[in-house]
Amino acid sequence: MRGVIRRPALLLCAALAACAHAPPEAPAGSPAPPDPTAFFPLAVGNVWTYSTVAAPLPALPDVVRIAPLPPKTFTITVTAIEQKAGDTVISLEEKVTYDLTKDPKKPLMDNRIIKSTIVCNAKKFDISPDSFFFAGEPGGYVGLTFDKLEQRISEEAPAIRAATTTAERRCPRAR
Question: pTM for the whole thing?
Answer without folding.
Answer: 0.58
